[in-house]
Design brief:
Length: 404
C-alpha cells in the first residue's frame, strides 16, 4: 500500500506540468470556439493523441500510480483548460473504467485499447447506463439482455440517454437487465463492438454546458453480441444471479462498481473548473480599480477570494483521499467517494458563481470565460449521481441503515 502524501513527487510534478502546458497552449485558446460550435473537437483529440496524452499506454500508466493521485491530477489540469474539450479527451475513460471494474484480464487487454485507437485512427469509448425513466434509480433499467444459448449470443434491446460519446463511440459498454425481478442485482455489463448492427444514435442533446462534449441517446434494437462480450463471463454472472435469488447480498453491481471508482475523478474535473474561475477572478481583482484602489483591497472581495481558495483546497483533499483509497483497495466505509464528488461539484458551482460576482457585469458577458465555466460547473451537481444521491450514499454509509 502506498502512503498518502500532500506533496506531489517529482514524476507527478512533471506530469502535471506537461498536461497543464497542453491545456494552456492548445485547449484554452480553442475553448470558446468549440463551446459555440457544440461539436466534438476531433482536431484537439488528435493533438492529444499525437503527444501521447490520449491513448491506452498513457491511461494505463496513470491508473498504475500507486498513490491514485495521477488520474485526478490529470483531469484537474485538462478541465482547468476547458470542461467540454476535457470531457471529449477523457470521456472514453468511463467506458474503460467499466471494463476494468467488471472485465476479465483477457477482456481488459482486448477492449481497452480499442476505446482509444491510434493517433492515425482515433477511437472513442462510451458507458451506457442512464435511461429516459432510469437516471438516479439505476435499479429501474429497462434495457434487457436475453441469452441465445444456441448461438452463444446476447440480444440487447432498449434506449440509453445522456451518454457521453453515445452513438459516435467505437466501443459501447452497455449495462442491461438480465433478470428484472432482481433489480440492480440482476444487471450485467456488455461490450458492443464497433459496427455492430442494431446500435444507433438517437437525439443529440444541446446542453447548457460542456458543449464540446458529445451527449446523445443510444438506441439498441436486437443488438447481438457474442457471449464473450459479457464482462466477467457467464459463469461469474450465473453465480452472482444464483446468490441474489437466494437472498444473499451482492458485493458489487454492474453500474455502481464503475461509479464508485470514477467519482473522485469526476470530482477532480469540477475542481479544475473551480480553480480556473478562482484564478481568473483573483487576477481581475488585483488589476481592476474602483474608487481609486484595487478591488481586492475591499474586504468583501478579499474574503470572497479567500473562501474560494479554501473551498477548492478542501475539495481537492477529499478527492485525493478517495482516489488513494480506491487505488489501494480501502473500502469507502463512510461514503468517501461520494463525499469527494459531492463537495467538489458544489464547490465548482459556488466558486464560478462568486467569480462572476467579482467581475460584475464583465463576468456576465460571453467574452469572458467565467460565464462558460459557471455553465460547465452545474453538471457536476447532476451527472454520475446527483448531489442528493451522494448525500443518500453517505447517509447510508455512516448510519448503516437503509435510508429510503
Amino acid at each position: 500500500m502506498s502512503d498518502i502524501a500532500f506533496a506531489l513527487n517529482e514524476d507527478q510534478l512533471q506530469l502535471q506540468k506537461w498536461v497543464h502546458d497542453f491545456a494552456e497552449d492548445v485547449i484554452r485558446p480553442a475553448a470558446h470556439e468549440w463551446d459555440e460550435r457544440e461539436e466534438t473537437p476531433w482536431e484537439i483529440i488528435q493533438e492529444a493523441a499525437k503527444i501521447g496524452l490520449y491513448g491506452f499506454e498513457f491511461m494505463a500508466h496513470a491508473f498504475q500510480d500507486s498513490t491514485g493521485i495521477s488520474m485526478p491530477m490529470i483531469n484537474e489540469e485538462l478541465f482547468w483548460g476547458d470542461a467540454g474539450i476535457g470531457m471529449s479527451i477523457i470521456g472514453s475513460t468511463l467506458g474503460v473504467a467499466a471494463i476494468m471494474g467488471n472485465g476479465t484480464p483477457e477482456q481488459i487487454m482486448e477492449w481497452i485499447p480499442q476505446c482509444f485507437g491510434t493517433p492515425e485512427k482515433l477511437a472513442l469509448g462510451a458507458f451506457c447506463v442512464s435511461e429516459p425513466d432510469a437516471g438516479s434509480d439505476v435499479s429501474s433499467l429497462r434495457t434487457t439482455a436475453k441469452y441465445d444459448e444456441a448461438k452463444d449470443e446476447w440480444v440487447l434491446n432498449g434506449t440509453k440517454t445522456w451518454i457521453t460519446n453515445g452513438g459516435i463511440a467505437d466501443v459501447h459498454v452497455v449495462v442491461a437487465s438480465v433478470d428484472r425481478d432482481l433489480g440492480s442485482r440482476g444487471q450485467a455489463s456488455f461490450i458492443v463492438p464497433p459496427g455492430t448492427p442494431g446500435l444507433s444514435q438517437g437525439t443529440k442533446f444541446k446542453k447548457m454546458g460542456i458543449r464540446a462534449s458529445h451527449t446523445a441517446e443510444v438506441i439498441l434494437e436486437d443488438v447481438r453480441v457474442p457471449g464473450s462480450c459479457l464482462l466477467g463471463g457467464k459463469e461469474k454472472l450465473d453465480e452472482r444471479l444464483a446468490r441474489a435469488r437466494e437472498g444473499t447480498s451482492a458485493k458489487t453491481q454492474a453500474a455502481m462498481s464503475t461509479f464508485e471508482s470514477s467519482r473522485p475523478i469526476v470530482g477532480s474535473q469540477a475542481i479544475g473548473i473551480a480553480r480556473a474561475a478562482y484564478e481568473y477572478a483573483l487576477d481581475y481583482a488585483k488589476e481592476r480599480e474602483q474608487f481609486n484602489r484595487k478591488i481586492i483591497e475591499n474586504q468583501a472581495i478579499a474574503f470572497t477570494l479567500a473562501d474560494m481558495k479554501t473551498e477548492i483546497d478542501a475539495a481537492r483533499l477529499l478527492v485525493w483521499r478517495a482516489a488513494w483509497m480506491g487505488r489501494n483497495g480501502i473500502p469507502f466505509e463512510n461514503g468517501e467517494g461520494s463525499m469527494s464528488k459531492l463537495k467538489a461539484g458544489e464547490v465548482a458551482v459556488w466558486v464560478t458563481e462568486r467569480a462572476i460576482q467579482v467581475l460584475g457585469g464583465y463576468g456576465y458577458i460571453r467574452e469572458n470565460p467565467v460565464e462558460r465555466w459557471h455553465r460547465d460547473a452545474k453538471i457536476y451537481d447532476i451527472f454520475e449521481g446527483t448531489a442528493e444521491i451522494q448525500r443518500l450514499v453517505i447517509a447510508r454509509s455512516i448510519s448503516g441503515m437503509r435510508i429510503p
